[in-house]
Amino acid sequence: MKLLRLGEPGRERPVLLAPDGRHLDLTGVVGDLDRAFWLDGGPDRVRAAFDTGALPEIPAGEVAGARLGSAVARPGKVVCIGLNYRDHAEETGAPIPPRPVVFMKDPYTVVGPNDDILIPRGSVKTDWEVELAVVIGKRARYLETDAEALEAVGGFAISNDVSEREFQLERSGQWDLGKSCETFNPLGPYLVTADEVTDCQKLGLRLSVNGERRQDGDTANMIFSVAEVIRYLSQHMVLEPGDVVNTGTPAGVALGIAGNPYLRSGDVVELEIDGLGSQRSKLVPA
Ligand code: ZN
User: Fold this and answer.
1) How confident is the model over 189-200, as pLDDT tens digits?
2) Burial label, 212 (beta-carbon count in 10 A; 0-12, 13-18, 19+)
């Protein structure tokens, strides 16, 4: 299933994108695409409601004019894996990590997939990162096998792990300052439930800036697979339904390419992942 949220920030309603392309209103079926959605059996309730054929359609004109909200509402936490693609580790000059590199991102950074991205005040090194986001559907603690880890995955979405490299690398021994700036995590357009993704380690992911292709990777090239990442994280923290895990970015970020073409006001960044849709955001000053 492809689920989305339509409406102004804080007032989004949950919507099902039907296989025939119609947008069906899920108001009254589920509250929102949040933690409670998973705890209350949201996917089954949506399927049952769809099968009745009675879900009201939102007119195409109304959909076209509406804002898309983030694919997850109010995630409890956003956990990120750094340097999880060999080519990206190499371009940044970092060694291939022997274990996943884990950091956290302020969950309030999560915004809609087409919302403006704010360039922080004083920033000269705002950078992009297309990533496969994992949405946790089931509580995960001390998982032992890859199969258990994949069972905890509720769905997937596109994530832009926007990063300010000076704040990240030059101001502190930790990365947090450059990862948690306002609007630094566009997420969506869809929450694609896990059953619809045949193999999450075979997804092409791409990013362009002003129409120029900058990243062109494949989740097959992750150093630590989605299952390994979830299992590893669960040894150190509890992952709760509605949490988001950004699984790392392939090569081609501004930090790693010739001339370091960091983002400027007016730039447009576009992201896509096979089967998960696309994002388009404009850069504006904070
Ligand atoms: Zn990242």
Assistant:
1) 999 999 999 999
2) exposed
